[in-house]
Amino acid sequence: MEPYSAGVERDARGILDPEAGLTRFRLDRYAPSERVARFVDRYWLASWDLTGCEPYTQRVLAHPVVNLVLTGGTATVHGPTTEVTSRVLEGEGWALGAMFRPAGFRPLLGRAMSGIVDAELPAPEVFDPVVRLGDPLALMAELDRVLTGLLPVRRHPAEDTRDIVERVAADLSAVSVSGLAEREGVGVRLLQRRFADHVGLGPKTVIRRYRLYEAAERARRGAPPDWGRLAVELGFSDQSHLTREFTAVIGVPPGRYATPAD
Predict the structure, then answer these.
(1) pLDDT over 90 (residue 93)
(2) 215 near 221, Cβ under 8 Å?
(3) How confident is the model at residue 219 (pLDDT cuts 50, 70, 90)?
(4) Does the pLDDT of residue 4 top 70, yes or no?
């Protein structure tokens, strides 16, 4: 598999305090095949060796997508999440994941994504991936072949919603549901129904998720930003609003996140 275009050094969105985490584990990203790439953003491989060390807890504010995770001979579908989750790493091991694009898992699920929000399902309840112990890179290639055979050839309605979400992620000026609906030429209620069906999370939650990613990335890079100006840029009413929401979701205020303890 080919390396993914953006390494974790360039884009750590979703990984909280990545500098500390990457001293305990390694994270490599790989691009899916062209056919699978319509629905899967990337494959990721986390590996660690903490033998003789204290266990490490990595906190994640996951993208508003599904992750299929293969580790220890099992495969689990992790639905879109509404809050920060944690994974404890200990001993030696690895985990292979397929991070789907927004709405990308909807064709495999065959029902509304809202039904698996904050859920972890054994993958065979949805589809039967090939799971085996051994070389994770070989397993990745095998998984890509399985997904190639399962994902639709014709364009799926969820792909239109995927495009909307990815425009939200790329364009910081998208800060409200009403503004997004107007820009996309649909009604607010229709937009909300499409997000519930195809993404699982509402458009307001998705917009805020990507704006918090941006705030976290700005916080950890270089000099501290002008928080008041950044709050307005990201669609918050003022700095206090950004600070409250950042703290509620991430667990610490943005200023402290920018200078984490050693």
Answers:
(1) yes
(2) no
(3) confident
(4) no
Q: Provide, for the chain, the percentages of residues in helix, strand and coil under a 3-state DSSP scheme, each rounded to the nearest 5.
A: 40, 20, 40
Contacts of 61 (CB under 8 A, 6+ apart): 14, 16, 81, 83, 84, 209, 212, 213, 216, 249, 250
Q: What is the rounded distance in angstroms from the CA atom of residue 168 to the CA atom of residue 194?
A: 15
- CA–CA gap between residue 176 and residue 208 (Å, rounded): 9
What is the Cβ-side half-sphere exposure of residue 1, based on CA atoms within 13 angstroms? 27
pTM, entire model:
0.91
Residue ranges of alpha helices (H) inside the chain are 18-21, 106-109, 136-150, 158-170, 177-184, 188-198, 203-220, 227-233, 239-250, 254-258
Integer angstrom CA distances of residue 144 from 13, 61, 68, 106, 133: 24, 25, 12, 17, 16
Q: Which domains does the chain have, with CATH numbers?
A: 2-150 (no CATH), 158-258 (1.10.10.60)
Q: pLDDT of 18-75, one tens digit each?
A: 888 989 999 999 999 999 999 999 999 999 999 999 999 999 999 999 999 999 888 9
With CA atoms as reference, report the closest residue to 55 among 14, 15, 25, 95: 25
Q: Kindly report the length of the chain.
A: 262
Residues 6+ apart with CB under 8 A from 111: none
Question: Longest Cα pair distance anywhere in the chain, in angstroms?
Answer: 57
> At 262, is the pLDDT very low, low, confident or very high (cuts 50, 70, 90)?
very low
